[in-house]
Design brief:
The chain is α+β, with helices and mostly antiparallel strands. It has a single domain, classed as Electron Transport, Fmn-binding Protein, Chain A (Pnp Oxidase, Chain A, Roll), CATH 2.30.110.
Length: about 220
Amino acid sequence: MSELLGPGPHTRVRRLPEKARYDEATIFSILDEARMCHVAAFVEGRAVALPTLHARIGRTIYLHGSRSNAVMAAVIDEGRAWVTATIYDGLRLARSGFESSIAYRSVALEGPAHEVVDDEDKRRVLDYFVDAVLPGRAGEVRPINERELRLTSVIAVEIEEASAKVSQGPTDDDVDDQGLAIWSGVVPARLVFGEPIPSSDGAMASGTVELPASLRRLLG
């Protein structure tokens, strides 16, 4: 059975609570499918949100960024992190602008955070990041070197509490509006990858470097 990660005092869904989900299965599936997340922190007395990549292993979300990044440094100093992720699924077009909305799945989570300092752990997590973006890619690229490792911060955020919000299905037109001859319905959206554009420098200039297996699988 999927365990519950909420509702908690910081992640309870208060607006449209019927859209709330608190089970691990829903929350983890959204986090794994979302291409990016936002992490928030106070920097010099101001609330700042940073878009970044993330990767999940169990109940831990990993974030990474430059060691000079002020938001990441603030998260490490605070020892806690607030992270959100959203997937855009399309349009929900009602007969009125007020009832129109988008289809989406989102997650908000909070938990204790710490910097990953062990080099081997960092290498393992950073390889996992590469594969989270494009499965199989970590085995195709040059391994991270010592300089790159020193320049990169990796933060582990334990998911202490979390909630998901899912908006999908038919529109919620008012009964009085349902007789209006105005188009209403749902327009699904999805992420589509285009034709790869190869680099033209170095070994790629020869035109003999084949498309890697990771991209062939991605493009189907």
